[in-house]
Design a protein that fits this description.
This protein is α+β, with helices and mostly antiparallel strands. It is built from 3 helices and 4 strands, in the order ββαββαα. The protein has one domain. Helices cover 35% and strands 28% of the residues.
């Protein structure tokens, strides 16, 4: 599975992204990602936009594209998955 994750916005005007091909990572990482997708029921979720300023906007793309803002119930439901994908963004930044 190919995953693209983007986080934009917020007070700092962030633009963070990472692309993950689960065929190119360790079995442990792959299991962790699949578990997060399953636990958060990603495929059952719908995009949801919030209201307010300085929100982070998340876009997670697989065979489905889901876009959510920080202050939405969908973002809260997806928090374990978002946190996991943000950790992948951070580890990518550290490798530069």
């Amino acid at each position: 599975m190919k995953i693209t994750f983007n986080r934009t916005g917020g007070f700092i005007g962030a633009h963070d992204s990472v692309e993950i091909d689960t065929d190119s990572i360790s079995e442990k990482e792959r299991d962790e990602i699949y578990s997060a997708f399953e636990t958060t029921k990603f495929l059952r979720k719908s995009s949801e936009r919030g209201t307010g300023s300085d929100l982070f906007h998340y876009k997670i793309s697989t065979e489905k594209v889901l876009e959510v803002d920080d202050n939405t119930s969908t973002a809260r439901d997806l928090k374990p998955l978002i946190d996991l994908l943000m950790s992948k963004v951070q580890s990518t930044k550290e490798s530069y």
